[in-house]
Structure formats: structure tokens, C-alpha cells
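Input chain follows. Return C-alpha cells only.
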Amino acid sequence: MGRDVPAQEFTREDRRRFRNKMHTCLDVFARMLRESRFDFERPQVGLEIELNVVDAAGEPAMRSTDVLEAIADPAWSTELGRFNLEINLEPRRLSAGGGPDSWEQEIRDALNHAEQQAAGIGAHLVMIGILPTLELEDAGPTSLSENPRYHLLNEQIFAARGEDLLISVDGVERLRTHAETITPEAACTSTQFHLQVSPDEFADYWNAAQAVAGVQVALAANSPFLFSKELWRETRIPLFEQATDTRPDELKVQGVRPRVWFGERWITSVFDLFEENARYFPALLPLCDDEDPEETLDGGGAPGLSELTLHNGTVYRWNRPVYDVVDGVPHLRVENRVLPAGPTVADTLANGALYYGLIRALVDEDRPVWSRMSFAAAEDNLHTAARHGIDAQVYWPGMGEVPVTELVLRRLLPLADRGLERMGLEASRREPLLGVIEQRCVSGRNGAQWQSEMFHHIHDIDHADRHQALRRMTQQYIEYMHLNAPAHTWPVD
């Protein structure tokens, strides 16, 4: 959600006022789109990374508040669980020295400083999609962050459901359990790439991001374990879809849309997404502010559209539209949310280069991929990729069902290189980043593959018990993470 909210109870009047105000915001937003009142001449990119807090043994540590106090940096903030933190990198232009490679030293410096401060109080930080040592009892009510907004969100989701959450994933092994809070969602730690775009181009960039989501997940999968079970290669995807589901079974059968949502169609305007939010999803947090957005716009200002953006933050699209106002000027962003955190900064930046370059190239094509590919195929790609990771076969126009590594090596890497070139990145900056993706495809190894191989090496060969094997694997993961060599180079021994 990204916004602090007070702890309170909501009345029917609150919900009526919120609905009316949100529709006013929608009308104002439509007017702003018609009048082109947005900043897009110098588009910027941004990055958020969520991390887990662990102790010296690699076990989850409920110390996020203590670690935040030790880091003492406004770039860091709380997340849903007491074992999570998030860092937000300052936005910058993608070209002219602001490409993904320019993040490396900044991110490493920030993470190293945070790790040093956390270590001083007996905690450590790890970038990983799901912490392998996390057990079900670690994701209970007492593990929910102290921030009131998460407690309020938890109350509203369970009030809408009227029953406990079912977490059910059939993968390499089978997990079936119930949760009485949304805390299992905190197991999902992600990397989020932001891209500022113009209103006229927003639909093309969002469609492109949707089309490549499955490819992204397949290559970057890093979440094969949950509650000691080996499940999907990117278990974050089904876990997140289930852990915030406001629908009991009866509403699912009726076709009510889930709040964690890939979507159901290609779009023609950013307005489509905000309108869908208002049409399909009741408010979880019906909080109104005092701004009259029509009055603000008539006066030449940029309205915050608070109700529209708050509601948007409770509809969890894998590619989310973002409206924001910075220094009095509004802008639009695509927030890409499909990727897990980690394994290393090097892997993260390579993933970013592939994403930014690829969607730029796809947007520039004469015949867009989304005009040749059904929306259902794009969604199927996402779930197939999450299940099978780098071994997935996905659909792509002109190639049919194809191994994702073959698709990337033959078709998508050249496109990404062309897109980054058009964004102003020199070959000397593009090639090392995309080279990581190339070698990941050639080796067939990403973070999830290494985790699985390393776990089985310890468990099956060394005959360690399951949790001990997961703990030892996690400790080895953390050691390699700090070395910052891409995960496809990590040995298993």
C-alpha cells in the first residue's frame, strides 16, 4: 500500500463517502489525461527491494523495528512482517549514466551499511524470494508488523472473507494449511522495477510488461521452499495470490475477481486499470482526505487523488499502474512486481536490464506482441513459469510452445539489447548485464535451481534432517550473496 493509515473502525457512511470520492477522483483523472497534465519529458526509473531479517543461524528474526532504528536511513521502511524490511532507491534517468549498472555501487553500499548496522544488534539481511528456514509458526499473528496499516488491512481482509485463509500449493511436494492472518504474505519478498511513462504510451508499456511477465519469472525464480516444503520454483506467485484473497469459495465459484490479479485483457489506456479497480473491488480501507480534487485542478494544482491511489494500493496487480505527484507535478509509472528478491545485486541489475530493454523494444515494434498473443496465453505463461522456473516452456508468437531459455537466447536477448541501445545505454554497459542473463540460460541455473540442488546435496548426500539442510543451505546462500557473483556461477558442494 505504501501509506501509513490510522487504526480505526469503518462505518457504512465511511464506505459511501469513499466510493463517491473515488468516483470524483476518477472523473478528475480522466480530465487530466485529456489535458495532458503529466511529466514525461525526462522519464525516470526506480527500484525497491524487500529483504528478510535473520539471525546468525539463518533463522527468521522478528527484529525489523530494531534493525530500522540501527540503520537510521529514511530509504528503509517496514514491510508486512516483523522479519521484513524494504529499501527504496532514488529514481533516476535510465540513460545518460542512469542505467541499471549505475545502481550497483549505490545498492551494495546501502546493503553493506545496513548489514553492518544490523550485525551490531545480532541480525542480518538476506535478499531471497522466500526465506527457506521460515516455518508456519513464524508467520502467525505475533509476526505481523507493528505498523497500524498492516493490522487494519488484516482486519479488513478477514472481515471480507469471514473465514481463515487456505494456503494450498501442489508442486514437487504438497502444502495445505490454513492461516488466521495475512502474515504468510510476508514470506513473499520481491524486487519492484518502476518505469515512468507518458499517458499516451502507458497502455503499450503495460501490455508489454504483461506479455513478458512469465519470461521474467522463469529466468529469475528464487522461491522454491515454503514452510519446509519444496513447491513451485517461484512459490511467491501462488502464495501471494492466496494470502490476500478476500473471497470465500462461494465468491470464487461466482467468478468474483481476486485482489491479486494478473488482469483479464490488454488495455488501451491507463484509465482502464483505475476504472476496473473502482468497478470490481470494494474498498478495504475507505479513508477520505479533505482535498477537493476538482477544486485543486481548477486552481492549476496537481490533485493527490488520495482515494484513487489508496484503493489502487489494495489491488495487487503483478504490473500495477501508479499515479504520483512529485514537486507539484503528476506523473504515471508502471510498477513491475513479478520478481523475487535476490539472489545478488548482480542478478537484480541483470533482471532490470532485461526488463527495461525488452519492453522498450516491444513497444517500438510495428506489430506489437500483444496483438499476436492472447491475454490468457500471457497469464498461462506466468503460472507455468512460476511452477517450473528456468525449465519452463512458454508460448511466444511465431515460435509456439518453446523452452524459455531458447526463446530468450534466440529472440528476446537481441530485442533487449536493441531496447537498451534506444534508451541510450552504450554497448559497454549493456553487454555485461545481458551477459548474466545469457549465461543463466546457457547453464540452466538460477536462484531457485541452486537452492533446490544445494538442499538435496545436503539432505540426500550428507543425510542432514530437513530443517537443518534448509538452514545450512540458507547460510551458504547468504555467503554467496555477499560475494555478488551471479547465482549461475554458484557451486553445489
